[in-house]
Amino acid sequence: MKIQVANKEDIKELLNIEEALFTNDSSALSKASFSYHLKKNIIYKVVIDKKIIAYILWLKRKNYYRLYSVAILKEFQGKGLGKALLEYSLTNLDKDIFELEVRVKNTVAIKLYEKFEFKKVKILENFYDDEDGIKMRLKR
Hints:
Elements: E1 2-5, H1 11-21, H2 31-40, E2 42-48, E3 51-60, E4 65-72, H3 81-92, E5 97-103, H4 107-115, E6 119-124, E7 133-139
Parallel strand pairs: 4-5
Antiparallel strand pairs: 1-2, 2-3, 3-4, 5-7, 6-7
């Protein structure tokens, strides 16, 4: 397994992951979105046997990074890849503040973020199409 920065040659595989996981999701990323984020933000990819099986997208802000998306193909979920991507990100990103939003019902993700010392900041009412979100922040 390798974690590295994604590039424009990876768009097709990143889009395949997105389409496999976020079918009929209004916030799913498009080909144009990936192209934009590869230029303006940071996407780390997980490669196994020359195939991209997961990614994490961080939005660069002036004083912090905002975690926008983590996507892991279903057959690779539950194997510690989310933890590995977060660990790699927090080691390699050059700011001391990180923020994210997560669905209130996504207890698996919330527990993972809390392991990395993200703290719940506030409830975001109707943040997602069908439920509330939680804003979380990590200050190092």
